[in-house]
Design a protein that fits this description.
With 235 residues, the protein is mostly helical. The protein is built from eleven helices and no strands.
Amino acid sequence: MNEIDIAILFVIGMSLIYGLYYGFVQTVGSLVAVVVSVLLAFWLGPIVASLAMGNTTISESLASVTDAFARVGDWDLANTQVTSLTEGITETVIQSVKLPDGISDILRNNLNSRSFAGEGILTVNDYVSKTIVSVSFEILGFIIAFALSYAVISIVLSIIRQVFKFPVLRQLDTLIGGAFGLLRGGAIVALLTLLIPLLDTVIPQNAFEAYLETSTLLPYFTNLGVFIKIATGGV
């Protein structure tokens, strides 16, 4: 068990305490808010990402932080035209940049399908940079859309609880509230793990990956397929 596991247990533990304290009705409402907010984020996230990508300053800042050229390493390889890539050279690029799982899969697909050709992006270096920046915007857009949706839904539910009086399960209210609190905590942890591949692109890999590889709980909350779906705008 390492610091990542401790953080996971802390988030779930706080959500459990929330459920035990507030009981069944409020905790279920909060869990519903999480689920609905996730669904809304799939719809609103790409819109938020698109708006953010229109900001040149933010895009350039992300590109400089991720430093695509340093990742490729080889000058000739970095400036190779994507149209001239063979399957073997593409795999050399993937191995050179050492991106986290998920982002490397997206990069491979972008290189093979020439995804950014219509934008005048032609070299390997530019494809690496554009892929990292696009994925970052999509994930951050999803998280922002989720947070805003959750805040609005929580306010609405709070108003409803003030207007209407809901029955309380006298004997099982605390227990069931705690159970739904655990589910809510797990959902929140799963959402937070979406940020891990982004952090992995900017934090020195040896240090960060050691934490990821030795975490006992993290694999239970990560889903590569969901990450790729969100990181590609839900397509």
